[in-house]
Amino acid sequence: MALGNKKLAQNRTKKYGIVVSRFNEFVTLRLLSGCLKEFKKAGIADKDLIIVWVPGAFEIPVAALNLARRKNVAAVVCLGAVIRGETLHYDLVAKEAASGIMKVSLDTMKPVIFGVLTTDTIEQANRRSEEKGDNKGCDAARAAVEMANILKST
Fold first, then answer.
1. Which fold has domain 30-55+80-91+99-154?
2. Which residue(s) pair with 50 in the sheet?
3. Is 116 exposed, middle or buried, given 0-12, 13-18 or 19+ CB atoms closer than 10 A?
4. pLDDT-derived band of residue 116, with 50, 70 and 90 as boundaries?
5. Which of 16, 68, 69, 72 is the most buried (most CB within 10 A)?
C-alpha cells in the first residue's frame, strides 16, 4: 500500500528527534532546514520536534540514543557532514557515526535515520544540501516518518 501525505502524518501525536552536528554547520544548517520543511509537509508540528545540537558527527549516536529511548519519540533523524581531509580522521568518524547510528536503531527498535553526508569535497556536500533542489535533510525526514508508520503498523 502506498503511503500518501495523510498516511505519513499519522504519527502526529508522537515526537520526532533531530540530532544535528555543529561541525560543518554551513552544511548542517541547510540539512536541518530541509528536514524541518519536510516534517512540516508531512503534518508534523514544530512542537513535536526535538532538536539537539552536538559538536560533531562522532557525537551524534549518543544523543540519538538519548532521544530514541524516550517513549514518546517515534523516530530520530541524524544530520551531519563529514568531508574528507588529508588524514584518516574522515574514515574513522564516518564509519563510527554510521555504525553508532545503526546500533541505536537496532537497540531501541526505532527508526534512527542516517542523514550524515560523507563526501570527498565541500562542493559535493553543498550539492547534497541545496536550499532548493537536492537536500538529504528532506530525504531523512521522509524516511523517518515513513519508517515510524511502517513500524507502527507491523
1. Rossmann fold (3.40.50)
2. 17
3. buried
4. very high
5. 16
CA distance 115 to 105: 13
The owner of cell 511502517 is 150
Each domain of the chain, given as residue ranges in start order, spans 30-55+80-91+99-154
Mean pLDDT calculated for residue range 85-112:
96
pLDDT over threshold 50, residue 100: yes
Catalytic residue among 22, 40, 89, 95: 89
Residues contacting residue 52 through CB under 8 Å, at least 6 positions apart: 17, 18, 19, 20, 63, 66, 67
- Structure confidence at residue 144 (pLDDT): 98
Whether 59 is catalytic is no
